Each structure stands twice: as structure tokens, then as C-alpha cells.
């Protein structure tokens, strides 16, 4: 393959396969905006039926059943999820130690105390540590299906059932992933997804919440959408009906244009997931043969959504080369989207979870502390992760092979970096 690019050689990845455009919104969807009725929906207060249609489509495409509600972000969906679950002041809530911080931060606004739970070898929450962390004050278990790989749900559900605890899912990485035939987001009392940034389905900003229980969804609705003309007649619970217009004082509704962007992507989601899985299978097959790299463990019976492909890097197997130097060499080969995640990390990296003087200014929870040493699995996983994109579309395998070539070249020439 020649000299390493970082040493002056030619990059392994041709220019067309260095970066991948996502999301892919069909030009035909934008041409639909010529329809005056759709234009009115996109710039309206509540979507004039567009948002409701997207909520129903999300539910039906994923095969969720139950009830769905869109919000302006995944963080807002999580806040509404926790509010609807009845979590409040003084409640302890078990959350993954390794996750994006938005999984846990909304709990502070409700006066809850997040209790961190360590990770397994694939970065997901450890069912054994869930059991160890349960106390009489524990009121719920929150899980995140990290990077689109489903958690070990049989064990998690068994522990939660033993202690009578609801399970709440952050499925922001896992649109359409399944575990033993059940889609992620359908295992517990409720679930939330992000529809923002570069998520598998994205409107730039947005989120969505699901519950199999209508009253649960109504409580979430009241914290999210005051005076919503599309839904206020749908509040059927007698004790919530007096608040159908005012809600509880917040407006977290999704912008109709974001909902419009999401709608077309939902139609093509099954194909996107199938193609992502094909790309991930190639990465697992080829990269799993290389020294110093481990591919993610997938639980038996699980079908990941593959929001990303999280390799584990072992410097000891590659002459002690630091992970950062390895990634720099891979990026120099043209695999420019290879990455070491930053803000997705053990939550003990943030003062909100370790500070003696409060979680953040004005927070209702005055003090919460965690020790990094208590979460070896989370820190070990974060210390080794090298994140790759996962591709879909006609040229998906060309992208995957190009990145495999770049990584293989660096591994085979690692002595030049020592």
C-alpha cells in the first residue's frame, strides 16, 4: 500500500469516499413545498396536521404501537419522558455512566438525583451494576442503546421487574434497532429519540417520545405543548383535562419544518437500516481480523441500527502507539470521519456529576458526587473507542472498503509511527 500518508505517501482513500453526506433528503420532497397547503403547514404554529402525521408515521414505521409525540429536541423529549414518569424531588434515577450528557441532565431540572451505573464491554449499561446501585430511593432505570447497539434487555428487564422499577429508554442512537424481534423504544414505560444533528433520522433539531400508555403520553404532552389545537381534545384523563389548554407552562413543540424534513426520511428508514447493517457487517468482518482492534459486541438476537461503528483500540497490540496518533494517521489516509468522541463520554468528566458545590448554578439539586474509580467499565470503553461512520446508499460498500483500506494500511505500517 506504500508509505503512510502522514509520512508523505499517497492517501489510501480516494476523495469521493472521504466524507459522507447525511441526511439524504430527496429533492422531490423539497419540490413538494410548491403545494400551498404544505407550505401553510410548514410555517404554521402547530403543523396543521403535518406534525401529527409524522408522529403516526414514526410509530408505524418502527412498529411501536401505542402513542407518540414530537418535540423540539431529544433533550426535550427526555425531559418530557421523565416528567411523565412522575419523577421528582429527591428521587434517585439510575442512568448510564457512559452516555451523552443529555440523557441525565434533564433529571436535575425535576429535582432528581442521577445515580451512575457502569458499562459493559460494548459501552452499554451493565445489568449487574444496576442491581448493585438500587436503593429504597430508586424510582426508575434509564438506559441508552449506545451507538445503535441494543442493551442486554433480558437481564435489564429481569432486574427492573424484580424491584418493581420502570425502564425508560434513551433510543437516540437506535432508531429501528431490535432485540429479539422487539424494536428499541418498546421495552419500557416510555422512550425518547433525538431527531437532531446527524442522527439516523434528523430534522436538524427535533425529538420524539413514545409510550404504550395513553395517560403517560398525555402527561408528557402537557409539559410540552400548551394550547395545541391539534391535540387538546385528545386529553381524556379527567384529572388532566383542566390543563389541556395551559399545559404546565412550557412549549417544547417541534418546528413543522423539522417535522417535514423527518417525514421523507421515515419513508426510507427500513432501506437505510438494511444498508447500514450491510456496511457494518463488512467493517466487522474485515477490521475484526486486524491486531489491536476489536469490533463491538452485539447481544444475541439483536439487530443494531448502527448510528456509528465503535471500534475498541488496544495500543499494547500495536507497539504502544497512542490511540490519538493512530487516529491521526487514519485520518491522514483520507478516512477523515474516523473520530474519538468528545462530549459523549463518562459523565464523571463533567462537573455537574462530581462537584461538591452543586450541579450547576440555580439547579434544584444542591450536591451530587461520583468517583471516576467506581466506573472502570465506562472509562475503559471511552479510553479505547475509535468511532467510524456507517454508510448507506448505492456506494455504501465503496465507502466501507475505503475506510477498511485506510485502517489496514496504518496497522500494517504501524512500525513507521513508533
From TrEMBL:
<protein>
    <recommendedName>
        <fullName>Aminotransferase</fullName>
    </recommendedName>
</protein>
<keyword id="KW-0663">Pyridoxal phosphate</keyword>
<dbReference type="InterPro" id="IPR015422">
    <property type="entry name" value="PyrdxlP-dep_Trfase_small"/>
</dbReference>
<dbReference type="InterPro" id="IPR015421">
    <property type="entry name" value="PyrdxlP-dep_Trfase_major"/>
</dbReference>
<dbReference type="InterPro" id="IPR015424">
    <property type="entry name" value="PyrdxlP-dep_Trfase"/>
</dbReference>
<keyword id="KW-0032">Aminotransferase</keyword>
<comment type="similarity">
    <text>Belongs to the DegT/DnrJ/EryC1 family. L-glutamine:2-deoxy-scyllo-inosose/scyllo-inosose aminotransferase subfamily.</text>
</comment>
<dbReference type="InterPro" id="IPR000653">
    <property type="entry name" value="DegT/StrS_aminotransferase"/>
</dbReference>
<dbReference type="GO" id="GO:0008483">
    <property type="term" value="F:transaminase activity"/>
</dbReference>
<dbReference type="Pfam" id="PF01041">
    <property type="entry name" value="DegT_DnrJ_EryC1"/>
</dbReference>
<dbReference type="GO" id="GO:0000271">
    <property type="term" value="P:polysaccharide biosynthetic process"/>
</dbReference>
<dbReference type="GO" id="GO:0030170">
    <property type="term" value="F:pyridoxal phosphate binding"/>
</dbReference>
<feature type="modified residue" description="N6-(pyridoxal phosphate)lysine">
    <location>
        <position position="199"/>
    </location>
</feature>
<keyword id="KW-0808">Transferase</keyword>
<feature type="active site" description="Proton acceptor">
    <location>
        <position position="199"/>
    </location>
</feature>
